[in-house]
Structures are given as C-alpha cells and as structure tokens.
Amino acid sequence: MSESISIELNAVAPIFDLIDIFNRPVNLKDYRGKRVLVAFFRHAGCPFCNIRVHRLQKKHEEFKAMGLEMIFFFESEAKVLLSHEFHQAINPIPLISDPDKVWYNQYGVESSALKSGISHATTFFQTVVQAKMKGLPVHMMEGKESIKTIPAEFLIDEKGIVKKVHYARSLTDRLGLDIIAKFAETGAA
C-alpha cells in the first residue's frame, strides 16, 4: 500500500460503487443528501476493530435518527466476515469486503508495522480480554489480511465532501463518539 496518498479535508470523497457482504449495492453517490461515516477496519478477528464496530453498532439507530449513515470496510474476505454471527449482525450497516485493499488505497489507509507493533505490545492483551468479555470474535488473520493495516475514519457531508479525516495513530485511536454525534446532528466536524 502507498503511504503517500491521503484524503484531504474539503475534497470530494472517492466514489465507490460496490456490493456489500449482504449482496446489496453500496454506491457512495446514493448517499448524497446524507451525512456518512466511512470507516476502514483491519481483519475480521481484530479485537481493536471489533470493539470499535460494537460501539458504533450500538449507536447506529441514534446516529441514523440524527441523519448519519455508516459504511464499514474490512480487509477480510466476505466468507470470513459472514462466518461470524457478530459480523452478520452488523446488518443493516453496509459491510464491504476489500481483501485486495483497492479502496483502502483510494482512501490512503496506512500500513505500518511500527504502529501496529507498538499497539500490540502495549494494549493487545487488555483489548483481547475486553473483546472476549463482550463475546466479540478474536482470531488470527486469514488470506490477504495484514497485521500492518492501520484503521481510518472519514466524515463525509451531504454533498460528498470530506469534512473530517482520521488516520489512526494506533490501533485504539479512533474518532470520538462525541465528534461523530456532533457531525451527525449539525454537519460540523
């Protein structure tokens, strides 16, 4: 993956026209007129990501009522995501499988052994325990999944313009739920 590409504030978000793991079309153009959180996660067994998905999923109805839609990307193959009840339950939020990281690259999602290694060394065991206590999947990588993928989140306004870019500094670094809620309600990032 290229580390030099990044999405800039106030740029038009790269438009994707894909099929999610639930066999539904997901075209970012269809979200015009709505605010959107587009989130890129690591692999299906990543405890850091599954905890984040769990938190966002719990806020789904609240955010939707405020006018925010969510679209989630995972680097795992669809069959891996569908093999877990947790990922199946993400529905109705679109969940897109991108094992070749085509859209990870388009959105400038970083690959960093250093950031991943530091996160694993400092917070992995606590995160695994937290995930297990919530009944979330934790397992080794499969296929093309990479231990070096670093999550990223983007807030996109009604016109398809990127209003907030968050390239994680570690595997636990994500946009605050308060920031997402404010954007959902007011459009201000």
Largest sheet: 5 strands, mixed
**Strands ordered across the widest β-sheet:** 5-4-3-6-7
Q: Could you say how many structural domains there are in total?
A: 1
Going by CATH, the homologous superfamily would be Glutaredoxin
Shape: globular
End-to-end C-alpha gap: 28 Å
Q: Find the count of extended strands (DSSP E, 2+ residues).
A: 7
Residue share in helices? 25-40%
Q: What is the arithmetic mean of pLDDT?
A: 91
CATH class designation: Alpha Beta
Structural class: alpha/beta
Give the low-confidence spans.
none
Radius of gyration from CA coordinates: 15 Å
As for the CATH topology, it is Glutaredoxin
**Secondary-structure element order, as H and E?**
EEEHEHHEHHEEH
Strand content: 15-25%
Total number of helical segments?
Answer: 6
Domain Thioredoxin: 7-185
Family: Belongs to the peroxiredoxin family. BCP/PrxQ subfamily.
Catalytic activity: a hydroperoxide + [thioredoxin]-dithiol = an alcohol + [thioredoxin]-disulfide + H2O
Keywords: Antioxidant, Disulfide bond, Oxidoreductase, Peroxidase, Redox-active center
How is the secondary structure organized here?
Layout: E1 17-19, E2 25-27, E3 35-40, H1 47-65, E4 68-74, H2 78-82, H3 85-88, E5 95-97, H4 102-106, H5 113-133, E6 152-156, E7 162-167, H6 177-186
Parallel strand pairs: 3-4, 4-5
Antiparallel strand pairs: 1-2, 3-6, 6-7
Helix pairs in contact: 1-5
Keywords: Antioxidant, Disulfide bond, Oxidoreductase, Peroxidase, Redox-active center
Organism: Reichenbachiella agarivorans
InterPro entries: AhpC/TSA, Peroxiredoxin_BCP/PrxQ, Thioredoxin-like_sf, Thioredoxin_domain
